[in-house]
Amino acid sequence: MPDRIAFSEQESAHVGEGHEVSRRFIRNAIEMALSCGDYQKEIDTRCTPANVLGKTIKRVRSLVRFEAAAIYLVDEHTSDLQYVAGWPKHHKAVVADEMEFLIDNGFVAWALRERRGITIYSRDGSRQILLHVLATYNRIRGLLVGIFPVDLRHLPEASLEILSIVLRNAANALESLELYGMLGDEKLRLERMVEEKTATVIGYEKQLMQRQKAEAIAVLAGGIAHQYNNALTGLIGNLDLLEMVGGQVPELMKHIERLRPIAQRMSGLTNQMLAYAQGGMAQPSVVPVRKLIQDVASAIRRILKPTTRLRIELPEDEKLLVRVDVTQMQMVLLAVVGNADEALEGSGEIEVIGWRATSKEKVQRRNTDGCEMVCIQVKDNGVGMDAETLQRVCEPFFSTKAVGRGLGMAAAQGVVKHHGGWMEMDSACGQGTRVCICLPIARGAVSTQIIS
């Protein structure tokens, strides 16, 4: 009896020690499973899927003794299971062979449907294999495949539940990373959209300010032009009278001859200011584009430097008509050609070409009214302009010349705009300048009164 009692005490101590080991194992496993909440902290510090898988493998290995194991993730594009990690690495082929067997026999599909851990015998029946999904509430992220050693026939229920927690947290972490990346991409996209919209708004504000400034200058220019016009009328009239009565006084005629070109230049400046301020067609006429260019050709040649070569190419269609104020449009062509001539250093060439715009040209793509357009292009091979100068070339009173009024191109643009067209300009330093005057094609008969 004493021996039996002694044995029982020894047996009880052994059982108590076993329970203590079991309790310690469960407590450590639960603490490890709960620590998976640290994934979110790692995600916030730019964790990667590889980091999540690495920590998951480390926790699984400390929880369960596998002879070989692997983690497969669902491919986003093909929905196939793709091998991403395994241990030990030299057993990858063994796991792949068993995985093929499990897929062919429908065990993988079963495990994915169950969304929990299931145990299957291996191909040769000598070992058991654990299949456990990595799944969130919304979707399946992957699959854990673990081959037990021969001496380990099954996994205890407590360990299986803790393993489920580990794998569920890993799946949640992978999904959080994906959503975090999507939110980051969407944030960048929205930031780019905001930047683009902001730039567009700033551009509109600049255009509005430019238009308001141009309108204010136009009002000022119109008022000044009318005052100058009144004064010039009296000045030129008196010059005519002096010329009539002073024909016998050579000294007086000499001064009159000096004053008349000055008065004429002032009259031209006044006309430019009025054209910029008003811009409308005072005497509209329907004229062929060929005649419009031909009539102004002689005046163009008079203003060019002797070293400048002029090439004019008229449109083939003689019935290509525009409705314009001929005097104002001739002034536009003279201003543009004069600007091109001033850009030539030494000798150079200026081309004046007219044609009907085709549907493939950007002129037609810019046209919002749907009417056909005609183009009159003035191109030179002069010094050209940089981007900043090109942007400001049509601003009133802007000029790069030491002596200049800066009204020619501004007035030209105002006139073309009020004729329902626009001017396109391309230029680069050392590559010359191209100015294209775009006007709507007119329909109807040619006007009988044409100013030549």
TrEMBL record:
<keyword id="KW-0067">ATP-binding</keyword>
<keyword id="KW-0547">Nucleotide-binding</keyword>
<dbReference type="InterPro" id="IPR036097">
    <property type="entry name" value="HisK_dim/P_sf"/>
</dbReference>
<dbReference type="InterPro" id="IPR003018">
    <property type="entry name" value="GAF"/>
</dbReference>
<dbReference type="InterPro" id="IPR036890">
    <property type="entry name" value="HATPase_C_sf"/>
</dbReference>
<dbReference type="InterPro" id="IPR005467">
    <property type="entry name" value="His_kinase_dom"/>
</dbReference>
<dbReference type="GO" id="GO:0000155">
    <property type="term" value="F:phosphorelay sensor kinase activity"/>
</dbReference>
<dbReference type="GO" id="GO:0005524">
    <property type="term" value="F:ATP binding"/>
</dbReference>
<dbReference type="InterPro" id="IPR003661">
    <property type="entry name" value="HisK_dim/P_dom"/>
</dbReference>
<protein>
    <recommendedName>
        <fullName>histidine kinase</fullName>
        <ecNumber>2.7.13.3</ecNumber>
    </recommendedName>
</protein>
<dbReference type="InterPro" id="IPR004358">
    <property type="entry name" value="Sig_transdc_His_kin-like_C"/>
</dbReference>
<dbReference type="InterPro" id="IPR003594">
    <property type="entry name" value="HATPase_dom"/>
</dbReference>
<keyword id="KW-0597">Phosphoprotein</keyword>
<dbReference type="InterPro" id="IPR029016">
    <property type="entry name" value="GAF-like_dom_sf"/>
</dbReference>
<dbReference type="Pfam" id="PF02518">
    <property type="entry name" value="HATPase_c"/>
</dbReference>
<dbReference type="Pfam" id="PF13492">
    <property type="entry name" value="GAF_3"/>
</dbReference>
<feature type="domain" description="Histidine kinase">
    <location>
        <begin position="223"/>
        <end position="443"/>
    </location>
</feature>
